[in-house]
Specification:
Distance between the termini: 21 Å
Shape: elongated
Radius of gyration: 28 Å
Number of domains: 2
Length: 263
């Protein structure tokens, strides 16, 4: 089988995956705290290509005989998506005036309790449940350093250090928001619903105070729709180019089979 068919096919598969992630980014352009995905592409190891019909010569008296057939050049074996990385660049801050809206200025994550354990999030559009607990839009409890954050009705205040106060004068200490960070953001894994985790084989998140909490604000998605649309156009062009290569290769193979068959 012609190697060019496989090379072009891998190119189409790579562009298909890139299109999927660009479309997912665009779908979440209005998702609070969403972080876009970026695909890293690598090529398969290249191969030296020689002319196969020339005499096979080898040097004599040299250890590790060298192939002296005329060298044509290098041949690519195609490409593959190496990894899907997350762009953790901070999104713009939107002022809402809603006391339940919180954002983090700095490298940190809110911690929420889920049925699968504690998870991290940058989405601070919180609410209060029937048990007067601070929760996410999906109902996951927001964690403080001593457990879930329990509020006194709607009278509460969060300072820049993440300390939560309740009461008529918002002067009764409740707890401090549990905000964590990691040293290597490459270890963070998306787990859906705008949540993140670090697999057990990597160093686990730890609490940090090197952040500032802003009440009444939200961090919006860091997706740039203009860049994503431009990338989708580039992806479609490259996909079409690889498709034409396959069509051309198929036509040449068919023509060669017919011509050889006549002889």
């Amino acid at each position: 089988m012609d190697r060019g068919l496989y090379t072009a096919t891998t190119g189409m598969l790579v562009q298909e995956l890139r299109l999927d992630y660009a479309a997912n980014n665009l779908a979440n352009v209005n998702t609070i705290g969403f972080k876009s995905n970026v695909g890293a592409i690598k090529s398969f190891p290249q191969m030296l290509v020689h002319r196969i019909n020339d005499t096979y010569l080898k040097t004599s008296g040299v250890e590790g005989n060298m192939d002296l057939r005329p060298l044509i050049g290098m041949s690519s074996m195609g490409a593959v998506v190496d990894e899907i990385a997350t762009n953790f660049t901070r999104g713009d801050i939107q002022i809402t005036g809603n006391k339940f809206d919180l954002s983090i200025d700095g490298n940190g994550f809110f911690v929420v309790e889920t049925p699968y354990g504690e998870r991290m999030t940058r989405a601070g559009n919180f609410a209060i449940n029937a048990n007067r607990q601070l929760v996410t839009k999906d109902g996951y409890r927001v964690m403080g350093e001593n457990g879930p954050i329990i509020l006194d009705g709607h009278s509460f205040q969060v300072d820049e250090q993440g300390v939560v106060y309740v009461g008529l004068k918002s002067d009764e200490y409740v707890d401090k928001l549990k905000i964590v960070t990691v040293d290597d953001y490459k270890t963070i894994k998306k787990v859906g619903n705008n949540l993140y985790m670090v697999p057990k084989e990597h160093p686990q998140p730890y609490t940090t105070t090197a952040v500032t909490v802003r009440q009444g604000t939200l961090e919006i998605s860091n997706v740039n729709p203009v860049i994503e649309l431009r990338q989708m156009i580039d992806v479609m062009r490259m996909y079409e180019a690889n498709s034409k290569v396959i069509q051309t290769k198929d036509s040449l193979i068919g023509k060669a089979a017919v011509e050889i068959g006549k002889k």
